[in-house]
Structures are given as C-alpha cells and as structure tokens.
C-alpha cells in the first residue's frame, strides 16, 4: 500500500474515531475502505449505515469516486433516490447505493479522503 | 577511463545562471546549484532544482589562494540547505573560454582541500564544482563512494534542447551518412550524429505511436524504449504501422511490431520493448533516463506519470493524440489532432487540467467494477490512420527541430490543436502556469527532485 494511501486511512481513523475503518489492499498500491457505522441522521432509514470506497494508488491525484453506502438505506420522507444517488449496486460483495459525486477540489490539492467522505455526508443531508 | 556525470537544467535556470556568470564584464563570477540526483547506469545525473547566485563582494570574494572564491558563510548556508533538502551541492564559476573549458590546478587543489568536509556536512549527497565557458562546461563531482566524476554533458531543457560538453566532441556512434544524405543536407553530420545518440521512449504503440516509431527510426534515432501492454487485433490493421494479418492471428505484442518496423528502417537500432502498463513503478522508471518521451497513450494514469517524470527528472516530451467525436445524431462533431509539448516550467498537464481526477479513479477499477458501476468497459473510439499520421508527423517534426536546435528558443510553448471537421481551424493554447502547482512549480514538491521523491505510479 502506498504511503499516501495509508496516511489517508490513518486520517480517516482519527476522524471517525469509534467507527470501524477496515481497509484491504486493492493490489495496485491503493485500498478498498469500509467505515462502519456512519451516522446519517433521521432523514434516512435506517439512520446509520456504512460507507465504502476505493482510495486509488494514484491518490491524492485520483478522486475518491464513487462512494457507496448500505443498500438498505431509504429516505425517511419516502421519496426515491435519484442520480447521482443510485440504488442497485454492490461494493465488495455488499448490496450498496452508489453516490457518484465528482470533486473539483482534487485539482487544487485541497481534497483528502476524509474531506471527501465528509462532503458526501453533507451532500446527503442537503438532498431536497 | 574517467567516470562521468550528467547535469540537467531547465532553460530558465540556465539563462539565469549564464546571465550572472557572463554579464559582459569579462570577469569571474560564482553561483551554487542545488540538484536532485538520479542514477543512469554508472552515471550520476544531477537535476538542477535551485540556482543561487553568489553576489560579488559578499558571497564571491577575493581568494586567499586563487583569484576569487565563494565566501565560507555562503558555502555553509548552501551546503546545509543541500543537506536539509537532500540535494547535491555544485559550486559554479566561469572562465572566459569559448568551446572548451577545464579546471585550473588551483581549482582542483581547492576541491581536494574542501570537498571531503562538504561531503560529510552534506550527509552523503554529492558535492562538486562546475566551471563554465561560453559554450562549454566541465565538472568535478564527488560522491560518498569516493568516486570523482567529470562532466559528460549538461542538457539544457527548454523549448529547444541544448547540450554543453567540456570540448567539442564527435559521436561515438557516427551513423553511415550516405543513408541519411538528404536530411544531413538539412541538419549536418553533427545533427545526424546527435540523433543517433538520442535515447527516445515511446509510450503507446498503437495508431499514433507506431508511426512515431517508424519516423524516428528512419530519421536515424538508434536507441528506443517502447512501452505498451496491448497485442495486435484485427481492428488494428487499418492503422498500426507494420502490423500484419498474422500479427492479429498470433496476438503479437504491439511493441514487437514496432521493433520490427524500427529495425526495417534502421537495422542498427537498439530497441528495448516493455509489454506492460507505464503506470507501474518498474515500467515508469524506464522513462527517467530518456532524452525525449513521446506519450501516445491516452489514459489519464499514463498522462500523470509522464507529466511527473518531465518535471521530476527534467525530461522533455510531448503528449500527442487524435480524437474523433461523434454527435448523438451520428454526424462528426469534431475531428482533431493535439500536440502538447511538455517541458520543465513550460507546460504541465496537471495544472492545465488535462488529467481528470475522476477518470484516474475509474481507471483504477477492474473491468468488473467499471461494468457494475455503469461506466462502460473500453468502448473503442473512432480512429483513422490519416489523422493519426498528422499528430505523429507533427510531434516528430517538432522533436527534430527542437532537439537539434534548428529553430529559435521561444519563451512560450503552445499546445496546438488542429481541427479538420466539421470545419477547419487551428487552436493555439498558451498553457497556464499555476505557481502553486505540485507538479511543475520550481518550488513544488516534485520539481527536479529526481530519485528524492516517489512517482505517482501504481505497484508493479
């Protein structure tokens, strides 16, 4: 695993203290990461889930994209998810909802794996 | 035989150094270069990251033994910076000579008095001296292995690529000039010999790269590194130079087809083939000692690695490609070829946003993952040989003119996009230079650090 990737994982563990941050090597120097539990709040049912994503070997040049959450999650207001949040996927064998959000911040060097996860959480909270 | 080293420097740094050494007063002046270090076989290569001009009367003063010398506090400041930054230390002064230059006995005595101590302070980084004439240079570089290296050549990498040696030299690999008679009439025997000495790397030996290989071989380039993981398929026969139906049947590696084409054009060529992905660490390392790199593979991960090598090892190159884009109604939306010269400080694919971070993420996935995440799998783009030939010829023509110094140095290198349909137009783009760019800025994490930092590669 490349040092940039292991550093990002250590930062995730600091940020999500109390959650399990499980990383497995992807064979190229990157990692597949699962963070569990993730607190989504009352707008979603269930209100907690997991996040999964790949940190590519070419991180931090490569984006963290896409991010997955548990396939059982639905909106508490019963509205269906719509693109870029799409159900019916899988991450590392687990049923998952895919969240396909590109990040312009990668180019400026201001994005980390942790900030990407926090941005995805913020995006979910801001869904209309 | 004397051991030799090589020094690589950007045109901007070189111009600043020469301007300070030769201000027109016919006097002697001094400077210190701090440089990243790599190894090319037995030869250390110093990549100039910082140029520190020694101010006359303050940093460059009357010598106790020789005419002038660097002031000890300046030396101390520079060697401790070299130690802290893990860079080589090279003290520079000038002589008034023209095409040949060498150290005086006083110079060499001063090296023997001072450099053992500087090696200790520098904690293993090379230390040494460089003396420059108007069109020549000589070095005396010391390493921790107790070996001293004279200068093989300085390579000045700008829009053009200039070389300085201790004295005029004839090529050790002088080609049979009658084979190249018509082009020797353009750039002379020295130019032809310089092409024969040039080590070129081509990444991607498909529709464009295969043509680049043929053009370079027939031009007289003798040393090639060819990198491509793919094999020939029947759909390649329309545009991969030299590919035969039997290659498609036998799934011949594209690099082997290119080798065959090169040897047909230049039987003396030395060709190294690597059937693998340039994004892998072990493969990317092959590019670090090239004299020029042609990037004719259109993956974002290849662009990222190529761009990094250009700025980290001061290797000139070009990213070239062609693109045919179809509109939803099936008509031609765009037919274009692109030629993007990349030099240290002159053009960068990262800060010009030509490396898409999301595509890098998608390229890191397996085919199964891409399919499951609905990104599609390797859908082939339209491609035709005539359009590819324009990109290839454009890039090789630029290489010939720039590598042999057949045209004037330009302050700005332009990205050139030639559009042929739906209407004909040429777009010249002046590349942006982001001062904070991690890749190309001379104060960024990567610039000229050579083996001192890692490449943005994947394992393998």
**Low-pLDDT residue intervals, each spanning 5 or more residues of chain B:** none
Radius of gyration of chain A: 14 Å
| SS-based class of chain A | alpha+beta
Which CATH architecture of the largest domain in chain B would you pick? Answer: 3-Layer(aba) Sandwich
CATH C-level label of the largest domain in chain B: Alpha Beta
Distance between the termini of chain B: 36 Å
Count the beta strands of chain A: 8
Q: Share of helix among residues of chain B?
A: 25-40%
The CATH architecture assignment of chain A turns out to be Roll
CATH topology of the largest domain in chain B: Rossmann fold
Number of helices of chain B: 12
Q: Approximately how much beta-strand content do the residues of chain B carry?
A: 25-35%
Low-confidence stretches of chain A: none
Specify which chain pair forms the largest interface: A-B, 27 and 24 residues
> How many structural domains can be distinguished in the coordinates of chain A?
1
Strand order of the largest sheet of chain B: 13-12-11-14-15-16-17-18
How many domains of chain B? The number is 2
Give the class-level CATH name of chain A: Alpha Beta
What oligomeric state best describes the polypeptide chains here?
Answer: heterodimer
Task: Determine the number of helices of chain A (DSSP H or I, runs of at least 4 residues).
Answer: 3
């Amino acid at each position: 695993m490349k040092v940039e990737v292991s550093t990002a994982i250590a930062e995730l563990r600091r940020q999500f203290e109390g959650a399990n941050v499980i990383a497995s090597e992807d064979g190229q120097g990157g990692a597949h990461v699962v963070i569990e539990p993730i607190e989504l709040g009352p707008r979603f049912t269930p209100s907690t889930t997991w996040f999964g994503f790949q940190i590519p070997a070419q991180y931090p040049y490569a984006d963290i994209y896409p991010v997955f959450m548990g396939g059982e999650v639905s909106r508490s207001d019963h509205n269906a998810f719509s693109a870029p949040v799409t159900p019916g996927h899988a991450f590392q064998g687990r049923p998952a909802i895919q969240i396909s959000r590109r990040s312009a911040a990668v180019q400026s060097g201001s994005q980390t794996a942790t900030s990407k996860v926090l941005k995805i959480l913020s995006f979910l909270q801001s869904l209309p | 035989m004397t051991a030799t080293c090589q020094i690589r420097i950007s045109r901007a740094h070189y111009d600043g150094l020469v301007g300070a050494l030769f201000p027109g007063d016919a006097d002697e002046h001094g400077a210190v270069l701090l440089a990243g270090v790599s190894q090319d076989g037995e030869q250390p290569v110093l990549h100039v990251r910082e140029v520190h001009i020694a101010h006359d009367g303050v940093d460059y003063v009357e010598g106790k033994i020789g005419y002038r010398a660097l002031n000890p506090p300046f030396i101390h400041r520079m060697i401790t910076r070299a130690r802290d930054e893990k860079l080589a230390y090279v003290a520079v002064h000038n002589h008034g000579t023209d095409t040949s230059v060498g150290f005086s006995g006083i110079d060499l005595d001063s090296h023997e008095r001072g450099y053992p101590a500087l090696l200790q302070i520098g904690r293993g980084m090379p230390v040494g001296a460089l003396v420059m004439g108007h069109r020549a240079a000589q070095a005396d570089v010391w390493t921790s292995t107790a070996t001293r290296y004279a200068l093989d050549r300085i390579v000045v990498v700008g829009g053009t690529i200039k070389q300085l040696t201790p004295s005029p030299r004839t090529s050790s690999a002088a080609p049979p000039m009658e084979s190249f008679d018509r082009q020797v009439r353009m750039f002379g025997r020295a130019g032809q010999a310089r092409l024969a000495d040039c080590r070129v790397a081509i990444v991607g030996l498909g529709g464009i790269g295969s043509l680049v290989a043929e053009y370079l071989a027939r031009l007289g380039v003798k040393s090639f590194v060819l990198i491509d993981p793919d094999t020939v398929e029947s759909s390649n026969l329309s545009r991969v130079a030299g590919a035969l139906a039997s290659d498609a049947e036998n799934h011949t590696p594209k690099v082997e087809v290119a080798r065959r084409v090169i040897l047909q054009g230049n039987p003396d060529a030395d060709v190294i083939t690597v059937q693998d992905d340039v994004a892998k660490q072990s493969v990317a390392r092959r590019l670090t000692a090239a004299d020029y790199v042609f990037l004719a593979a259109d993956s974002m991960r290849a662009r990222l690695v190529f761009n990094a090598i250009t700025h980290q090892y001061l290797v000139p190159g070009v990213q070239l490609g062609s693109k045919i884009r179809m509109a939803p109604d099936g008509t031609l939306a765009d037919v274009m070829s692109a030629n993007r010269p990349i030099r240290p400080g002159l053009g960068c694919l990262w800060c010009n946003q030509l490396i898409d971070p999301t595509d890098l993420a998608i390229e890191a996935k397996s085919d199964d993952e891409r399919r499951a995440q609905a990104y599609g799998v390797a859908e082939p783009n339209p491609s035709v040989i005539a359009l590819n030939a324009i990109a290839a010829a454009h890039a090789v023509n630029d290489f010939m003119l720039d590598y042999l110094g057949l045209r004037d140095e330009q302050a700005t290198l332009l990205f050139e996009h030639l559009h042929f349909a739906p209407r004909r137009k040429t777009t010249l783009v002046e590349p942006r230079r982001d001062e904070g760019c991690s890749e190309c800025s001379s104060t960024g994490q990567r610039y000229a650090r050579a083996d001192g930092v890692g490449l943005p590669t994947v394992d393998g």
